[in-house]
Amino acid sequence: MLTETTRTSAPTGMPQRQGGSLSRSRQGNEALVVRLLREHGPLTRSELGTLCGLSRTTLYDAVGALMVDERGYAGASPDEVVLSALAADPRLEVVFLADAATMTGDHSLLAVSTRPEELEEGDEELGCEFRLIPTLVNTVHVNLAIGHLDFWEFAYGAARIPDNVLRF
Fold this sequence. Notes:
Blueprint: E1 2-7, H1 20-40, H2 45-52, H3 56-66, H4 78-88, E2 92-98, E3 109-113, E4 129-132, H5 137-146, H6 151-159, E5 165-166
Parallel strand pairs: 4-5
Antiparallel strand pairs: 1-2, 2-3, 3-4
Helix pairs in contact: 1-3, 2-3
């Protein structure tokens, strides 16, 4: 199962900064891996290496940043994957999952919040997940990391779209 995560720093609770040319290069490598998986379906690391041309170390890093577990979560619910990811890193704010629906159909990813929804009087309950197109993962990730928007604002936007997939 693939995942992209947003974390807060442990001592201050402030979002960690994302950026720099190395970070952009890593994001580009991760995007390449996601694109290949979308185009070809499930692949081994060896098959990915043949298709993408990245060095073994670079590919290992890119896949490692995206994978919660290669096939160990087959059939697991999003909640089970998120709980496992939280056990490994309790600072996680959101997990982006490539589930079975991602590998078929419109290839939308599942964004799952690791925090409960805090409703005020008159608020609409949105649930702790929404779908988005893969090209929006970085936009959502960065906005969450810098605190510009919160998860629920994205969930609200997705809830207003007929197929509930955020595409803006």
